[in-house]
Amino acid sequence: MGKVAVITSGKGGTGKSTLAAGLGAALVRRGNRVLIIDCDAGMRGVDLMLGVSGKLVFDIADVVRGNCSPENAIYPCGTVPELYILPAPQSVRDEISPYIMRQLVYVLEKYYDYILIDCPAGIGTGFESAAAAAGCAVIVANAEPLSLRGCDKVRQRLMSMNVSEIRLVINRFNEKKFRKTGVFPDLDSVIDKAGVRLLGIVPEDNIAAAETQKGRPPEGKMRAVYAFDRIAARIDGVEVPLEI
Q1: Does 49 map to a domain?
Q2: Which domain holds residue 11?
Q3: Residue 212 dihedral angles phi and psi, to the nearest 5°
Q4: Distance from C-alpha of 158 to C-alpha of 201, rounded to nearest angstrom
Q5: Nearest to residue 77, comparing CAs of 47, 113, 54, 104?
Q6: Out of 89-93, 98-102, 182-186, which region has the weakest mean confidence (pLDDT)?
Q7: Is residue 239 part of a domain?
Q8: What integer is the mean pLDDT of 186-196?
Q9: What is the pLDDT, as a whole number, of residue 215?
Q10: Per-residue DSSP letter, 97
């Protein structure tokens, strides 16, 4: 059985979808077969980041309606073999119910080592659906008060849904900006504010961000890729020291 993780955040703009794409590619580099399910109905973007948007015919709503079988709506990422995506519907009206999501993931997890579910920001109905089938969660936040404010609410909601294995990724971290702003004395204070155990820190990396905008998950010698690989190793059960 594959491991199912929901990737979520308390607010938008934290780089959640970028993390899903980068982490998916990193898990593949470790020899895993990975499926990313985009649950951000009406705002889907992972298909663009994986370079498959021009190939889309079906999405997750078509599977639920019976317009196609699941395999017809799952698309391979051309640049990263063994990385796949099940796109979100184009309309919020086609948002999948929690019950259907659990049934669908139950079928799909037999064929993948990991399923990463890209969740809409916040704790609305889209969150309920995305987290319904998850066994663990990654909360993505930036090292700023507005981003961290929602972390505790997300954590509490996940725990009420029996998702107890919850970890934090601090994304787009820029040490110079962090120290210059002076809102927090150190990163330990950021982690305490989030109230979630740290999984990893991804540095701000404009080159990696540009790659995802071009439809290519970042690979090679980039700071963000180094961080993705370390996070993937921890998820895969390897003891990798945290770098703070």
Answers
A1: yes
A2: 3-233
A3: -65, -35
A4: 21
A5: 47
A6: 89-93
A7: no
A8: 93
A9: 84
A10: P
One-letter amino acid at 94 equals D
What does the alpha-carbon distance between residue 30 and residue 15 come to, in Å, rounded to a whole number?
Answer: 23
Q: Does residue 83 form part of some domain?
A: yes
Enter the tokens of residue 3. Answer: 């491991």
How many domains does one find in the chain?
1
Q: How far is CA 181 from CA 70, 131, 144, 184, in A?
A: 47, 34, 9, 8
CA 87 to chain centre: 13
* 163 lies in some domain: yes
Angle at 157 between CA 144 and CA 112, to 5 degrees: 95
The stretches of 119-174 forming alpha helices (DSSP H) are 125-131, 145-149, 151-160
Structure confidence at residue 38 as a pLDDT band (50, 70, 90): very high
Residue 211 predicted with pLDDT over 80: yes
Q: Which DSSP category does 241 fall into?
A: -
> Which domain CATH number covers 13?
3.40.50.300
Q: Which long-range contacts (CB under 8 A, 24 or more apart) does 125-130 make?
A: 125/95, 126/39, 126/40, 126/41, 126/92, 126/95, 127/8, 127/154, 127/157, 128/98, 128/161, 129/39, 129/95, 129/96, 129/97, 129/98, 129/100, 129/101, 130/6, 130/8, 130/37, 130/39, 130/101
Ranking 20-29, 38-47, 50-59, 223-232 by mean pLDDT, the lowest is 38-47
Neighbouring-strand partners of residue 86: 37
Q: Over the chain, what is the mean pLDDT?
A: 91
**Class of residue 34 by CB neighbours under 10 A (exposed 0-12, middle 13-18, buried 19+):** buried
CA–CA distance, 146 with 143 (Å, rounded to integer): 9
CB atoms within 10 A of CB 150: 20
